[in-house]
Amino acid sequence: MNIPFNSVSKIQWRNPSPVSDTSCLVCGDPHGKRHYGAMSCNGCKGFFRRSIWEKRTYKCSFNNECIIEFKYRNRCRACRLKRCLHVGMDANAVRSERTRKIKTEIDGDVKLEIKEEPADSEDADDECPLDIKPDIAMAWQTKEIIAHMLYEEDRVLNWEEPYNKLRYYTMDSEVLQAIKDPSQVCARTKINWNSHSRPLITIEALRFNWCRTFTLTIDWFETLPEYRALIDDDKELLVKFSLMPVGWLWYAYKSYEYRCDGIVFVDGSWFPRDKTIQQQVCPTCVLYYGRITESFMADVVNSMKELEMDETEMVLLKAICHLQPDYRLTRRGNDVISTGREKYKRALCEYIRMKSNGFMDASFRLCKLMQILPVVDILGKYEDESALLVSLGETEFNGSGGGLPYDIHASDSHFARKNRRKSDNQYHQQHVPLHIQ
Known about the structure:
Elements: H1 10-14, E1 33-35, E2 38-40, H2 42-53, H3 77-86, H4 91-107, H5 140-157, H6 175-180, H7 203-221, H8 225-228, H9 232-257, E3 262-264, E4 270-272, H10 275-278, H11 283-307, H12 311-322, H13 331-355, H14 359-370, H15 372-393, H16 395-398, H17 404-409, H18 420-429
Antiparallel strand pairs: 1-2, 3-4
Helix pairs in contact: 2-4, 5-12, 5-13, 7-9, 9-11, 9-12, 9-15, 11-15, 12-13, 13-14
């Protein structure tokens, strides 16, 4: 008994033979004619001719083993050209045809007459639907990156440790020490984004949420190999650059996920978008979040709703948002950060291509997602201004000697000396107005 496909080669299996003698040997289109020495359709003829004339080079992302068939022949041009040559299309015939055409046009004695092809013009490369999937599957490297990031996201969000309820968070810490051991700033208490009671935020909740978000975000930074590879000085700068934007991206996704019309916090409290409800919130919290909330909802949360953003896109965006090159970093630090940023951008591009219905759809979605990043960066700057106002004028926000928010949010803190905060506290205690340059 003959077993079906027993003698079929790998290339024949991935590129099935045409169903009739008049089919295109490249893609299987039933309307084939002999072009350049092989049976081919007008689309493949035009593709082959342009590729040879213009000396185009293509690159395959899947080891030169893509399926070439009529409906999906545009997926990989490298494999399509390889298939054209494999079935016997002659590149020399294309070159000689072009030579004859140029000579005829120069002489001007003979008018070149080109017969129009019905419907399927050779210059109209492909009639394939535009809504096809552009890629069969993601590369295994991308799958591993995404799987690792989703695992770490879940681990960090569910990381709980025993703590002393009498003193489990403080703002009195040096930045570098807080980065090295974020549990000094806040114990790893249970994260509760979706509280059933959903209380309005208070000044005490504001202080706690600032500290718990700091610990949560630093814990997440530590999951990225690029961050772990940096020296301490680069880590400190990178935290100051990206702590707020990454936090706002996280908050926005949780507000979108739990359909909260305002900012949702890690302890389950919230700050409302509705200004009528804001009247029930303490003035310090309104000063802190009032300016931020409208842009937060309109420009970030609503964009996530329109796109129906998923968690994979969110974690990849967080990594891109975090890894921002800057002239103040060391050269090695910038190299590490730039390489990592490109890695996560490629992973995001490939993931979006996989889940989209075509290149146009994928490009549009990628643009809309990337437009979120400058918005959360602006939200971070808004919070810098709000936090400075509150931390300098509200002892109930700072607590006793709480200078970490000031060091993180101050615009000139990247260049501050180690004793800068001590001097600022002395001025503040003497009630001398402090102006941020």
